[in-house]
Hints:
Strand 2 (80-85) and strand 3 form a beta hairpin. The chain has three helices and five strands, in the order H-H-H-E-E-E-E-E. It has helices at residues 2-22, 27-54, 63-66, and strands at 70-73, 80-85, 88-94, 104-111, 114-119. The radius of gyration is 30 Å and the shape is rod-shaped. The protein has two domains: 2-54, no CATH class; 63-124, CATH 2.40.50.140. The longest helix is centred in the N-terminal third of the chain and has 28 residues, at 27-54.
Amino acid sequence: MLAGILAVTAGALIISASLGIALGISLETVIILAIILFVIAGVAAWLFYAGFKAQFKRVVTGKEALIGAKGIATTDLKPKGEVRVLGEFWQAIAKDATIANGQAIEVVCLEGMFLVVKPTEEKLNSPECQ
């Protein structure tokens, strides 16, 4: 495939050079225009590749993104309260322990619209760090 692209490019360059000289355009101008076209074609090919690759990228949202995410308690959880995870406020349940306001938490699972969380040893200073 690469050999075909190079052959077509070389042929187009030879034809455009001969037409350019016949029309009074210098060879240097034709070469500069060919280089500009190669740069534009390279950028277009890279954009096409990036777009094509993005179509097969796995999307991680919803439940998959929340489980294992770290956050901070914004109220005391005894056992219910509010936490901030991934920049959003959620109602949460602490099943195994009481969690104090400002303590770092990790999401274990979801029960309906409630996050089940556990305390972590990691220190988070403020809700803005998530």
